[in-house]
Each structure stands twice: as C-alpha cells, then as structure tokens.
Specification:
122 residues, mainly beta, 7-stranded antiparallel beta sheet, two-stranded antiparallel ribbon, 9 strands, 9% helix
Length: 122
C-alpha cells in the first residue's frame, strides 16, 4: 500500500477484538489506517491483520465498552459494525480523535449506509 492511499492512520491503536470471538481473545496495539476503500489494521503482537472494506460497513460509532472491556478513562472506543459474508461482525479500537475517525469513515463510505435515520447510522 502506498502512502498516497492513506487518508489517515494511527500507529498505537489498541484493538478490543471481534464480537464473534468473544471476550477471551487477545487485545493489542497495532497500526490502524483508513484508505479510500477500506479500514486496515495490523496488530503488532500477535501478528494479525484485519481489512474491512468500507462498502461493508453498516455502522460506525463511539462507545464506552466493547465485549465488556472499557476504554481509557474519559475516552470512547471506535466501534465498526460490518457485514462479513452473511453475518454482521463488530470490531473496536481505542484511538486518539475518535470523532475524526468516524467522520473520515463516513466521508469515504457509501452515502446510503450512513444515514442518521433508521437502523443504519453513525
């Protein structure tokens, strides 16, 4: 991936896990990047990666907890809900500037998925 594709990124995003794997999974730091097409995460240890195409995202929000784990005091977690095959999945990160991430994903995603009305919203 070339640097010109990255809209913004964070090198110490703390991953709070995937909903489908439950609360007992590894949580760890890694590199989170938003491109014009996807949200990409590369965990430093253990070596794992996750790519979420923006077209599959149906909800992006700031939350206090994910899988029973709370964010740092006074901060919100960035939670992304998306379609993975025929199932909905959710992932969350503790990032700086959560509102900036939400707006960046909203600005680059499909407009129809980010209505502030109904079930699909920010």
């Amino acid at each position: 991936m070339s640097a010109c594709e990255i809209i913004f990124s964070e090198r110490l995003a703390n991953f709070y896990g995937l909903s489908s794997l439950g609360p007992g999974q590894f949580r760890g730091n890694g590199w989170l990047a938003l491109t014009k097409d996807s949200l990409m995460f590369k965990m430093y240890f253990p070596d794992k990666s996750l790519t979420i195409p923006l077209e599959t995202i149906n909800r992006v929000e700031a939350v206090r907890t994910h899988l029973g784990k709370t964010g740092k005091a006074g901060s919100s977690l960035l939670r992304i809900s998306y379609l993975y095959g025929e199932h909905e999945e959710a992932a969350a990160w503790n990032v700086d500037h959560t509102a900036q991430w939400i707006e960046g994903i909203r600005a680059n995603g499909r407009t129809g998925l980010f209505s502030r009305e109904g079930n699909r919203h920010l």
